[in-house]
Amino acid sequence: MARSIYFFGAGQADGDAQQKDLLGGKGAGLAEMTRLGIPVPPGFTVTTEVCNAYYAAGKVLPAGVEDEIEAAIGRLESLLDARFGSPEAPLLVSVRSGARASMPGMMDTLLNLGINDEIVAGLARRTGSERFALDAYRRFILTYSDIVLGVPRDRFEEALGRARRDAAARLGVDATRLNSAELERKVPDSLLDPESLAALIQRQKEIVVGATGNAFPDDPRAQLGGAIRAVFDSWNNHRAQVYRKMHDIPEAWGTACNVQAMVFGNLGDDSGTGVAFTRDPSTGERRFYGEWLPNAQGEDVVAGVRTPHPLSRSGPGGGAASDDADDASSLEARMPEAHAQLVAVQARLEQHFRDMQDLEFTIQRGELFLLQCRTGKRTGRAAVRIAVEMAREGLISQREAILRVDPGSIDQLLHPSIDEGAPKRLLARGLPASPGAATGQVVFSADEAERRAGQGKAVILVRSETSPEDIHGMKAARGVLTARGGMTSHAAVVARGMGKSCVAGCSAISVSQGQMAVTIYDDHGHATGSIKVKAGDLITLDGGTGRVYLGAVPTVPAALSGEFEELIGWADAVRRLRVRSNADTPHDARTARNFGAEGIGLCRTEHMFFDEERIDAMREMILADGEAGRRRALAKLLPFQRGDFLGVFREMAGLPVTIRLLDPPLHEFLPQDEAQLEQLSKAMGISAKELRRKSQELAEYNPMLGHRGCRLAITSPEIYEMQARAILEAACEVAAAGIEVEPEIMIPLSMTRRELAITRALVEGVAEQVFAEKGRRVDVRFGTMIELPRAAIMAGELAEEAEFFSFGTNDLTQTTLGISRDDAGRFLGAYVEAGIFAKDPFQSLDVPGVGALVELARDRGRAARPGLKLGVCGEHGGDPSSIAFFERAGLDYVSCSPFRVPVARLAAAQAALTAESARGPRATD
Ligand code: ADP
Ligand code: MG
Ligand code: MG
Question: According to the 3-state scheme, what is the secondary structure of 159-186?
Answer without folding.
Answer: HHHHHHHHHHHHHCCCCCCCCHHHHHHH
